[in-house]
Design goal:
single chain, about 240 residues, alpha+beta, 2 domains, seven-stranded antiparallel sheet, 8 helices, globular
């Protein structure tokens, strides 16, 4: 008499076959898995950002001509729309079908993350704190509530423009995302990408009538501890209204 496998065994065998098929499909490239953000999230307070504008009042040529490093700010708050526009220019999704972003990335590995340190009253309608930018949903995720401008400035060798800016963008990198594809040479690709993003931040702030400056002098471990992240910090961009 023929014996059929039990229901439990059939379920297990079916699951193994399905899992094996998925693994093979991923390895062959038939299925692409988009990497989620690696930022450590301790609080799930999400702030949706206004949709970015695709047309501005200043041409690219004029923005390039007017771009300068600005270290003095009025202290007036920025709007959430302005902050969202700058973040979109830095790492926003511009080709949703493939997840391509506003700045080029070697092999579309996208090793960079952006954190935002908001002073008390720095952004209209936004509580002070440290946020992580999620480009896929164009939103901010609160990591730590509170004003950390003093601590961030201290980590940045007490540079006053870091302390006084209404908001600071901190650019970090997970190098393995790129080096796992390109080996040791991927390290230089990550820094190249950071430069692309930095210029986008400069040009977008210029076109909005705001000011920023690229800050590279800081204690890496202090910045990482403040952000609570595993990535390596590369840049700090204070942003404010020009004094």
């Amino acid at each position: 008499m023929m014996r059929y496998p039990s229901l439990w065994r059939s379920v297990v065998l079916s699951s193994v076959v399905i899992l094996a098929s998925i693994i093979i499909a991923v390895q062959m490239g038939a299925i692409r898995i988009r990497k989620p953000s690696q930022a450590p999230i301790t609080m799930m307070e999400v702030v949706a950002l206004p949709a970015p504008s695709l047309r501005g009042t200043m041409s690219v040529e004029e923005a390039i001509y007017r771009r300068r490093s600005i270290r003095e700010y009025t202290g007036e708050p920025l709007t959430l729309k302005e902050l969202g526009q700058i973040l979109w220019a830095a790492q926003g999704i511009t080709f949703p079908e493939y997840g391509f972003r506003s700045a080029p990335s070697a092999g579309a590995t996208y090793p960079l993350e952006i954190y935002v340190s908001v002073r008390e009253g720095g952004i209209e309608g936004l509580a002070s704190g440290i946020y992580h930018y999620d480009p896929f949903s164009h939103s901010l995720i609160l990591i730590k509530p509170g004003d950390y401008s003093q601590e961030l400035a201290h980590a940045a060798l007490d540079q006053e423009w870091v302390r006084k800016a209404p908001v600071c963008l901190i650019l970090t990198a997970e190098f393995k995302r790129t080096t796992s594809v390109y080996g040791e040479r991927g390290i230089r690709y990550v820094y190249m990408e950071a430069g692309h993003v930095g210029q986008n931040i400069y040009l977008q702030t210029t076109s909005l009538g705001l000011g920023t400056v690229a800050v590279g002098a800081f204690h890496d471990n202090e910045v990482k501890s403040l952000l609570g992240c595993m990535e390596d910090p590369i840049y700090i961009f204070p942003v404010g209204r020009k004094a």
